Amino acid sequence: MDLVLDVADYYVLSPYVYPASWPEGGALRQIISLLVLTNLGAAVLYLGLGVINYFLVFDHTLMKHPQFLENQVQRELKYAMTSLPLISIPTVALFFAEVRGYSKLYDTVDESPLGWPGLFLSMISFLLFTDMCIYWIHRFLHHKSIYKLFHKPHHLWKIPSPFASHAFHPVDGFMQGLPYHIYPFLFPLHKVLYLALYIFVNIWTISIHDGDYRVPGALTSAINGSAHHTDHHLFFDYNYGQYFTLWDRLGGSYRHPSALMGKGPHDLIRKLQAEGKLGDGRAKAEGQVNGDAQRRVTFKEE
Ligand SMILES: [Zn+2]
Ligand SMILES: [Zn+2]
Questions:
Q1: Residue 77 CA, ligand 1 centroid: distance in Å
Q2: Where are stretches of biased composition, namely Basic and acidic residues (predicted)?
Q3: How many angstroms separate the CA atoms of 110 and 102, rounded?
Q4: What CA–CA distance (Å, rounded) separates 198 from 22?
Q5: Cα–Cα distance between 204 and 198 in angstroms, integer?
Q6: N or C, which terminus of the chain has less Cβ within 10 Å?
Q7: What is the Cα–Cα distance from 204 to 114, expressed in whole angstroms?
Q8: Which of 79, 188, 168, 173 is nearest to 126 (CA)?
Q9: DSSP of 50-79, one letter per residue?
Q10: Which stretches of the chain score pLDDT less than 70?
Q11: The dihedral sign for the CA sequence 57, 87, 169, 228
């Protein structure tokens, strides 16, 4: 984050915002700047990438699904935009520690323990480490003693849109984001690579909520894509992972996506359309009241 802070200081904050008497290295000034930059960055990434995905990737047919809620997109947006500022508060504490030099982030490839290959290895280890941590944090958030407190709001969206990607309770959002922020305090990582991975994480989080189930054939069983995460939203106790299916397989929570077996949300929509049940409000009402339209078509009618 100090790269972003330096650029913001140089081009905007020092010449136009802060008085010259307030030095760039002042702790309070850094905290205020980080709060503003973190909130701006989160909003730009969430809204920018979300809008691009919503219009270019997300299949709007999914909005006809009985379990797609009334005004769901607006509700997801409102929930996320309310939570993100609260998530930013503890996040900024970690960014501040990073800016003050407590992390293992480095500036140049020369400082990488293994040179260029080290950058590649840190990319792999970042993904594996955060995938493992998020699996267990996510599974913990599903524990019946705390589920209702923090994680339940994210499961309000049974058929998510890309805007569900960041629609979390603030505690839930912070906990699931924590592995990304902790990594550079534990392992060496190039600063530019860290920023690139941060953007990638946001793209990925949106992409597993966009209902586009395509994954290159050979990788289908290894990558936790949108089809896997859709089943997590629908069936709850499966596919807690983020990037890979590894920990779900090890933890006994893997479920082969129903969408890849011809029993997914699109299949239910097609079936209801063929039966003439879409558009008369009946299927929608059943889905909303019972919340189990997909479960019925997947389990009882197979
Ligand atoms: Zn969950
Ligand atoms: Zn989700």
A1: 18
A2: 293-302
A3: 20
A4: 30
A5: 10
A6: C
A7: 27
A8: 188
A9: HHHHHHHTS-GGGGGSTTSPTTHHHHHHHH
A10: 279-302
A11: positive
